[in-house]
Amino acid sequence: MNTTTSNRSADALKNVPPTTLGIIGLCVFIHAAQTVLGWNLQLFTMCPRLILFTHEYYRVFTSVFFHGDLMHIGMNMLSTSAISSALEKKFGTLRLLFSIWWSILVTSAIYMLIALAAFAIFGYDAWMYQHAVGFSGIIFHLSVLESHLHPGPRSVFGFFSVPAYVYPWVLLLLLQLIVPNLSFLGHLAGIIAGTLEYYGVLDALFVTDYFLVEMESWPILLRTLTSLDSFVATTPGQRLRAESSSSSFQSMHKVLKVAFKFFRDIVETIMVCICGRNYRIGIININMRFWERFSISTRRTTRNDVENGVIRPPEFYEGGFYDNNDGAVDHEEEKEPLASQIV
Predict the structure, then answer these.
(1) pTM of the complete model
(2) Would you give the DSSP letter of residue 332?
(3) HSE of 4 in the Cβ direction (CA atoms, 13 Å)?
(4) How far apart are CA 11 and CA 151, in angstroms?
């Protein structure tokens, strides 16, 4: 029985294309090393403040390949195996490799841009401090492409069906409701990145099909890769994209405009509920900075921080207390949030 199971597992791995198998192997290896060596996960997470203002750029890549626990990496790798394999078998091994590479960069850029815009426009800084980790932001990018590759109704957990192009958005909302500690922003950034690639906005970032075909003939660098039975050669012109670039781009622009206005109205409503009717969009608290630590001698934060729309959860501080005489708060040192979110 064990021999039969082992043979089936080996055959299944042989059928997984190289790029997909490499991603799964890398994530599993990193998680094993993280578990055995006891690495501090928060040193490798996606945190916009630490990337933008302390220049820890390595987090853009490490946050993708590290995972929170065994269930987290197991679910992500199962999804990667299904979605990534389908795309790789259709469009080629090297093309998917470049797509994932750019997905990491573009998804991270969108993530940080939204977090920075939320603070600059609404004074909402929680996303700047949020720590996120996992490969599922890239999975959502790939799922957008896969939904257009196989159009038709998709079952949502077996309860109801939706059109394929809506499926990633429905999954985004339902997963957030079911598992609140998932990184909504990481998944959203992945969907936006996938949508941009499908409508051709990211074409300038990708190499041409003929260059990919030329790469496959390089004997020194890619001989081992191209000799694999599961390797999928590039077919020129077989790239997934919208049929009409101009009309599709206009449609996408309208959809994103409406979505942004809807998101903006929701966030503004929440901020008014939290901060009161005096809250106005565009107010930026000049006392809020992300690039340095403050000591008791250099920083005194008043209650106006909250009144001006800047939210500081209590776990960001150590030794903070309200002074009954002047209403100020002294903070010994600002520290990182204790809880990470999974992507």
Answers:
(1) 0.69
(2) S
(3) 1
(4) 29
- Has 67 been annotated as catalytic? no
> How many helical (H) and strand (E) elements, i.e. helices and strands, does the chain have?
14, 9
pLDDT given for residue 81 in this prediction: 92
- CA dist 4 and 10 (Å) reads 10
pLDDT at 45: 93
Rg of the chain taking only CA atoms, in angstroms: 23
Asked whether 67 and 133 are in contact (CB, 8 A), the reply is yes
Q: Which of 31, 67, 141, 187 is labelled catalytic?
A: 187
Distance from C-alpha of 265 to C-alpha of 233, rounded to nearest angstrom: 47
Q: Sign of torsion, CA 93 95 98 99? A: negative
Residue 23's identity, in one-letter code, is I
Query: How many other CB atoms are there within 10 angstroms of residue 266's CB atom?
Result: 10
The answer to whether the beta carbons of residues 149 and 334 sit under 8 Å apart is no
Residues 16 and 73 sit within 8 Å (Cβ to Cβ): no
The whole-number pLDDT of residue 254 equals 55
Backbone angles phi, psi at 342, to 5 degrees: -100, 145
- Spell 218-236 as b/e; 16+ CB within 10 A means b: eeeeeeebbeeebbbebee
Length of the chain: 343
Segment-wise mean pLDDT, segments of 10 residues, the chain, 343 residues: 56 79 95 93 92 93 93 93 91 90 94 93 89 93 89 80 86 85 89 90 83 81 76 76 54 56 60 56 36 39 40 45 44 42 58
The residue from 85, 99, 103, 136 that is catalytic is 136
